[in-house]
# Entry
Amino acid sequence: MSADTSRDTSSGQIIIITRNAIAEAMVTIAEVVGCMVVVLDADDPHGSPLDQIRATPPTPFDAVILTDHDAPDTDTVLRETLAGAAGYVAMMASRSRSQNLLATLRDEGIADEALERLRVPAGLDTGGQSPGEIALSVVAQVVAWSHGRTGGPMRRS
# Structure
C-alpha cells in the first residue's frame, strides 16, 4: 500500500484508521479518483491512530474512516473524532452493530449534529461483499459527500 502516513491539513483528505484488506482497496480507489489518502495504524512510527488524531485533529474537509471496529482505541478515536470537526466520519460495522452503536452514542449524550456526520455502516448500499466492493462503496460515499451529494442515482424519479 502506497498511502502516505504523514498528515497534510491544507486540504481535505481521507484518513483511514487501521490497515487491512478493505483499507488497501480504499487507498487504491481513492488515489485513482484523485483523493489524498493517509492510513493510520498501530505500527505507525508517528504514533498510534489516537495519538495522531489528537496531535493533528481532522478538519471539516476531512473524511475519517475506521475500518476495524475491534482495533485498539477504536471507541475513543470514534468519540473524539465525532467531538471534533471532521466533516465525514464512518466506521465499518454490521447493520445490527451499527444500530447498537448509534443507540449507545445517543445514550452517552453525543450531539445529534455529530451523529448526523457518522456513517455506520460505512458506504453506499451496493450489496458488495468483497474488500474491493466494500471499499468502492465507501469511497463513492466520500466522493458524494465531498460534492454535497447523497450518492443516490443520477436519474431522479
Summary: Helices lie at 21-32, 49-55, 74-83, 95-107, 112-117, 131-146. The longest helix spans residues 131-146.
